[in-house]
Structures are given as C-alpha cells and as structure tokens.
Amino acid sequence: MRDLSDRRSAIEATLATALSPTHIEVLDESHLHAGHAGAAAGGGHFRLLLVSKRFEGQNPMARQRLVYGALGDWMGSEIHALSMRTLTPEEWAEQTRTAP
C-alpha cells in the first residue's frame, strides 16, 4: 500500500502516462468516508475529472473502462471508490466556455 500523501500524485501520473490528458484533476475524498469498510482496509475514495482525446468516439462506459484499465490493480486495493467525469477536449471546451 502506498503512502496516502503520495497516492493522489501517483494516480495522476499513471493516468497521464496511459491516457495523455489535456486536463486532469484527482481529488482525494477519503476523509469524507472515515469509518467506511473500504477506508478501514486502506483503499481511498477519489473523484476524477479527466479530459483526453482518447475518449473521442467512446461512450461513457468505454471511457470508464479505459480509466479502469489504466489503473489496473489499483482498483480494489489502493482505490476503494472512484467517481469520474471523462470528457473529450471538445466537451471540456463547451463546458468551460464563458458567455460574453
């Protein structure tokens, strides 16, 4: 099990290598789940926003499979729960565009 303080950074690095994101945010929300069975076993709770060209033409389930595939054996050990938003750069631009 990795040091908790390094886990978020290691997840970011793993996803950056695997999916070449244009934007990535990994938030460790483990503190919100103190006392939860997964937290007691050492697995963290994370929220992910990932923007990647790799998601173009992929439905939401296929995008999640790409993320889970990149994280491999982290799921169920280092990561107990992962909430994710997976967007293409075009979708991200639409969502972050501000009105004039």
Please provide a written account of the structure:
The protein has about 100 residues and is an alpha+beta fold. The chain has a single domain (about 5-90), classed as BolA-like (GMP Synthetase, Chain A, domain 3), CATH 3.30.300.90. Helices cover about 40% and strands about 25% of the residues. The chain is built from four helices and three strands. The protein has helices spanning about 5-20, 35-40, 60-70, 90-95, and strands at about 25-30, 45-50, 80-85. Strands 1-2-3 form a three-stranded mixed sheet. Strand 2, helix 3 and strand 3 (about 80-85) form a beta-alpha-beta unit. Helix 1 crosses helix 3. The radius of gyration is 14 Å and the shape is globular. The model has no long low-confidence stretch (mean pLDDT about 85).
Task: List strands and helices in order, with pairings.
Blueprint: H1 4-19, E1 23-28, H2 37-40, E2 44-51, H3 60-71, E3 79-87, H4 89-96
Parallel strand pairs: 2-3
Antiparallel strand pairs: 1-2
